[in-house]
Amino acid sequence: MAYTNNEEHFLRVFKNSIKIDARTISVKTLLSERNLKRINYSPYYQRNYVWDLIKQTFFIESVILGTEIPPLIFFKSGLKIEVIDGRQRFETLKRFKDNEITLSRKGLMSLTGIDKQSFNKLDPEKLKEVFLESNIRIFEFEIINEPTLEISIEDKIKREIFRRYNTGITPLTSSEVDNARYNKDPLSDLFKKELALKGDFYTYVNNCFFNGEIDEKIQEKANYLRRLYIIEKFPISKYASGKERAEIVDLLYNFTTEHIENYITEFENFKSQIKLVHDFYLKISEEEVTLKNRFIFECIFWAIRILESEDRIIELDENYTILVTHYKKNIAKYIRDDSHYYSSIIDRFSDTAEVFQLITQFNFSIFIRNLGFKETVKNILSSEPDSVQKTDEFDHLRINKPSPISTPIDEIRSDIKTHRYSIRPSYQRQEKVSELKASSIIESILLGINLPPIFVLKKTDGVKEVIDGQQRLLSIMGFLGEQYMDQDGKLQYSKNNSYKLKGLKILKEHNGSNYNKLTEELREKILDFTIDVIIIDQNVNPNFEATDLFIRLNNKPYPIQPNSFEMWNSTVDTSLIKRIKEITKEHSSWFYSKETNSVEEERNDRMENEELLTILSYIKYNSINSEFEKILGFFTRKDRITCRIKNKAGLTDFLIKLDNEANEKEIFLECIENTNTLINKLKELFGGNPNKESLNSLFNVKGSAIFRRSFQDFYIMWVILVSYDSIEIEALDETFFENLKENLKTLRNTRNSNVEDNYLHSFVSELNLYYSL
Question: 223 or 211: which carries more pLDDT confidence?
């Protein structure tokens, strides 16, 4: 049978010729010599292995504890098997079994007794057997009844399966992880309850530390307040490094709050300290508005916490003039572009220490640098519950769970509307899934593609608490137009109630349809579709912590970000991706956003440089019609202009559509080649042998001691360089460098001008002039 085009053939095969085998096998079987010979866990479309030791350790601990991990997605072709999704998980299991991983204390939440142990050194010995016998779920895809299938069609099917399993539910943010981790923390509860009232406390926090922006981000603010609560206990030199900051903040917070006698009294004292800072905020006049800076207030709060802990009293009102004069003189230390860099953090806290020391004669030096802090952390760790005991209690920690129960959606929807189900426990995040992602879930159901299992805790009172799967369930209930019972016992509709399907890649004919517009056959297919439900009985697992499992299942280490090269690498036409990678590698010694010359840098490479080259080629593609503003957005931000891609999702759609648009694909390939030509032209401008300092000296128009390149530096350079495309290299001379530096100086406002709409308009107009050359 002849097909009009590859797209038609692809759609027919995907709809009718895919067999899916869902099964569970042990780690021992998965990593058997026979399987390792035929399983390719790093096919060309997979990203690099990027997990660090902490993430590896956390994952191995989860497996040993019996925590269900996301299924591995395989693609079988004859005798060969490829890992479509799960390369990081598969390779971590293999590396641990091969003794290439020594577990790190920082990655262990429960089994602290296996710190510094490899597989062969696991103690007690039974943990080896537990690891090898742990079950791993596998969804294996295979194309049947297509003996002469073209490789290009098979390749496209693999990419579509990968996309479907990697663009579903958004992983937890750090704020959401912390909200779950501190779900039962009394002080955090007081923070959130008081913030939710939107009263004085909310105003203090919002004005001083969140630039006065009114929003509903209560969790984010509570997480920030936990860090603020212990900031004076964390030497700034260590805090500023960023290394292990989150782990140490948690350690200090937990240790400090364990010794609180009265949480309400403690909270009121904390609130009064923030009020002192806010009183200073209110006193600042409009003429001194630049002093209304979150970094200034954070440093002042830090100084107040230190002084009060040392039984010193500071009156900000009495010293208002001294403080204002000092901060006006040193404001540059608090408004730097690189405010999150080590030197910037040290500079601003040291500066605040200087003025407060002048006022109080108190020496803050030990709070800036404390050589004994490492020992302090060590002592806190040693005071935690005995690690050996934790390992001895392993049988109580390990989850005893039955096999999954395949439950029809029709049964699940009935249960969700009753008190028998709790779909929104307090540690759950808000409903976040978009209509686009929800539509993809419904499309998978209609195609018969397995969804990850739903995890439920059956509590002692019989209520089934949804630990993982909330977003999937709400996507289904929303499409059906059904209500669910919320945490307050009230029936609610999903935020996407009765939504219409959109963005379907395979069943395109149903785009724009809601549930009621589907045929009766399709509606029945949805209701009959079974989802695996894993029920953990609290009566059998009395020590089980739901939040621990929630974090382990949702806190994906280094998730593939949507609209990134890591995603494009596995979803976009291979000829485009291959050429982009080749060009990126060719110029990797100097033309890059992120340096990847060392072994460690290469291992953790998130393909940012390939992403940059793709975007530059896209800018070139649109420059053909002089439409760089269609791609690049320019915005005022405090004292400078920022530049970013307006619609990266649009770029993703463009790249994927090139699969079926041969002419446009050829044009874009030419743009990729042209990008290579321009890089070589730039190379000649640098004398033919540039190094990393060559570009740094060009981009670092502010002369910062510590400088990191940003994508926007390259964007501005490209807008200018593309306009010189047809000019011979000899004619460029210093003109290009001069023009680029001037535009970057305007972008970063090195002249300290008043950045407003006219400033922005003038800058964009200047860039537009290059397109008239």
Answer: 223
